[in-house]
Amino acid sequence: MGSAIPVAIFKVDAEPAVELPLLRSTLGSTCLDIRSLGASSGCFAYDSGYGSTACCQSRISLVDAESGNVLYRGYPVEQLAEQCDYLEVACLLRSGELPDSRQRASFAAAIGRQAALHEQMVKLYEGFRRDARPMAVMVGVVGALSAFDHAAGEFNAPEQRQLRFEQVIARLPTIVAMAYKYSIGQPFMKPRRDLSYAANFLYMLFATPREEYVPNPVLVRAVDRMLTLQADFGLDAASATVRMAGSSGANPYACLSAGIACLSGKAFSGSGEACLAMLTGIGDAARAGELVARARELPAGARLPGFGGGVCGANDPRLPVMRETCHEVLRETGLADGRFGRLVRAIEGVALEDRVLVERRLQPDTEFYCTVAQHALGVPSSMFACTLAMARAAGWMAHWEEMLSDPEYRIARPRQLYTGPLRRPLAAAPAS
């Protein structure tokens, strides 16, 4: 914790004043320490949505919209995406340092050993409807992992937490791929130890028993970059949900299931599907100007899906890497010069040049390019949130373990501002 210096005085009427120390962060906003406020004054802070409240100290990642920084353990995310792979970044998020070659090889081997699911999980998938939302399937399957791991609730020792971390990172791609295969009626493809993390994911998604599938190295690298760019994003709603669930001592699978459920909400991960639906509705480069008409119809402050969104907006340091990755995928899949590729370029041109869109800051954001790239890869829009959950698994597990290691760790107990009726007697029942 940073040095605490009394800088604020809280006083209500004739009650004694309460000093609120100032906690300085290494980068980003400074915080007033209000932990003693309730006991000292009888008052509590009200902050709907926690927009002005820090609920924990964390060293994992920082999102600073004003400066345009997204850092994983101090490293710029855009540099990590270009120079490292997802498994290295997962190690970084958990331990605080990038692995050396030996540590990286050991971690990759552990991921390979843990990637397969118990055969009984196949029957669990068969209990879902074929048209079930993949995120709903993920919530159920991830939560059910603890039923196949009786030691899931034992994580006091560092080696136990390391094992849980490896199991989650290894099994999420398998779970996502199986959800997709089940939805289209194709047989599940078992994970392969001879493939990299991203290559194995593409193999499980798109391979079939009837023909050989060799993952394209350009597309493999693109998927790996997208996973890295989305591995963590500060303490957003889903990460906070994982911490909240974990504060009760729940097993990590239950915590991740809660995080996935939060991520499935339209306010969180629905913009990718909405963005692709909008692009499909426009349909052709010649009609790209319809984007302007849609923007004019928006109420003040509203956004088009995939345009001008996110915490960082145009300052998002992930944006150039995601844009480059998107166009690499379009070229490699042969879509760059086709109808869809021309539409994407036309939409980009309109968004960057039209006065209405520029004034409203409705330029393509990271969600736009991630949506286009996944569509070009062949990932259906219903799976976009699943791939995001897969990427976030590393960050969620890092938050879960950091919370358990915090000396101030305790069960979360948010306060409420009660606005209901006063105590009132229950009317006596009429005599029969």
Automatic annotation (TrEMBL):
GO terms of biological process kind: tricarboxylic acid cycle
UniProt keyword list: Acyltransferase, Transferase, Tricarboxylic acid cycle
Record-linked Pfam families: Citrate_synt
Pathway: Carbohydrate metabolism; tricarboxylic acid cycle; isocitrate from oxaloacetate: step 1/2
Protein species of origin: Candidatus Accumulibacter adjunctus
Recorded superkingdom: Bacteria
Protein name (database record): Citrate synthase
Molecular functions (GO terms): citrate synthase activity
